[in-house]
Amino acid sequence: MKLTEFIKTPLFLKIVFVISIAVIFFISGITYKHLSELSDSSDEVSRAYEMTLQLEKLMSQIKDAETGQRGYIITKDSTFLEPYTFAKLRIGTSFTVLEHLTNNKQLPNDNLQLLEKLIDNRLNLMEKSLQLSKENRYAEIQANLHRGKATMDSIRQCIADMSDLETKLLSIRQENYKNNFSITPIFIYIVILIGLILTVLAFVRINRDLTELQQTNNQLSIANESGDIAESVGDFGRWEWNIEKNTYRFSDNFYRLLGCEPGSFEPTLDNFLQFIHPEDAKHVHKAIDLMQESNDLPPFNYRIVSKTGEIRHFKSIGKLVTTESGNNVLIGTTSDITEEYDITKNLEERNLELERSNKELMAFNYVASHDLQEPLRKIQTFISRLNDKEKTNLSDNGKEYLERIIVSSDRMRSLIDDLLQFSRSNKAEKDLETTDLNSLLENAKQELSSKIDEKKAVIISDHLPILNVIPFQIQQLFTNIIGNSIKYSKENIPPQIFISVAKVKASSEEQIPKDTNDNYFKFTISDNGIGFEQEYAEKIFVLFNRLHNKNEYDGTGIGLAICKKIIDNHKGFIFAKGEPNVGSVFTFYLPTDL
Q1: How many CA atoms lie within 13 A of 43 on its CB side?
Q2: Taking Cα atoms as reference points, which of 282, 341, 347, 290 lies closest to residue 317?
Q3: What backbone torsions phi and psi does residue 304 show, to the nearest 5 degrees?
Q4: Using CA atoms, how far apart are residues 496 and 493, in angstroms rounded to an integer?
Q5: pTM for the full model?
Q6: What does the pLDDT look like over 318-327, one tens digit per residue?
Q7: What is the sign, positive or negative, of the torsion defined by CA atoms of 128, 130, 131, 132?
Q8: Across-strand partners of 316?
Q9: At what angle do helices 10-75 and 81-102 cross, to 10 degrees?
Q10: Strand arrangement of the beta sheet that strand 496-505 belongs to
Q11: Is 481 in contact with 523 (CB distance < 8 Å)?
């Protein structure tokens, strides 16, 4: 499959969709990570500020406690102990906050533990100084104050170290926060941009698909409408069998073929089988079993009994089709062939009648060639003897009667011979042979030699081609047409007969139908005889049709009918053209590749 074709397939769209979702998830994950880091950085900065603030509060509270202690030692006034008492409580709270701020953080807890130990030590020294002050043990108070000052210095140093550490960490966290804050919008922008791009692409594709779907639906609607019209005109219906789901669908005209309204019953196999003619039920069940086994339905005919009780002849055929979704569906058509069946039946009956007629014609041929000729032969024999031996003994009327009998018997002989010749041209045995038409023309001239000599006829011919023909029929064709030209020649004017031939195309000849074989040989036989009126140009090829009285010209009216039959046997065409006292022209066409 080419790449351009693959891009248009639904599989490509699914792949692009999956990849796009994966990219969005990936970038979203990275963005979420950066947002989390940004949030953590923000929390760390806040914690660092809070840590510094709590250390400052802690230092302030220790100073408050020291101030209260000193005031009490100097004045012995217990009111100075209030800041000391409250400072001790607030110091505990501050430590709790500091422990929470440093809990689960990657920070050293040694300073906080040291600070707690120093503050506890300082508070103990303050408590001891207060106790010594109450007992007026001033010498020991001074020493205790010196130890307190040293402890306080250690506390200041510890808080200072912790503050410096938090300051350094704060700088690092601020830098991280700044970096995360600067990078995170980029990822968010990328996610939004990709989302917009995918949304636009999805919209364009969906819009295009909707347009194509609408066009397809329109085309499908037109196709369905055309199909419905075609079904009505063609007298057939469509059906579908979904093999996986074992469900059926019938078209509207399928219902109408059964004499029902569309959708008047559920499209199932059992419901359809109710319409099958009882005598064809076994045949139909066998075809359906074969369809369900092989998923194919060869053409088969059967009868149904419509809802109105009318017996109709149906023909069904089916073919397996696999849809794009992979479902196997057997689609088929069912045609009402009742008219076709009736026509075929009538044709068979007519063929039987034609066969009987042919047999009767063959019987007539036999009678004409044997039973009729034999008595006629005897009549002519006895007439000849009577004419030779008894004519002188007859009266004048008897001699006239004898002459009429001789003429009538000769006409009977000609009629029988022509009928036999016409019957012979109708026979089915038509063996084509590659034949030189020049030799057939010469044979025809020899056959007509006595008449040619009698009339002093002149025959001029082109060189004729070699064709696949029935030799004796083409010779008979030449004999009949040339014989007619000699018979219907002008009195005291020798007949002049011209035969020409040319290779032509049907498309260039007005007389030949254009849907026939394209290449023909055109033969033209013209004479200078008495001619005929053009209105009789077609009638002269009709059997027993004569243009002249039998007393003027002898003949039976069969000769040209034989010519027409011979040309039909060769899938050709023959035409006649005449002009009184000018002559006649016979034109016939024979295919070049018969």
Answers
A1: 9
A2: 290
A3: -130, 160
A4: 9
A5: 0.43
A6: 888 877 667 7
A7: positive
A8: 300, 334
A9: 160
A10: 458-461, 496-505, 519-526, 583-591, 573-579
A11: no
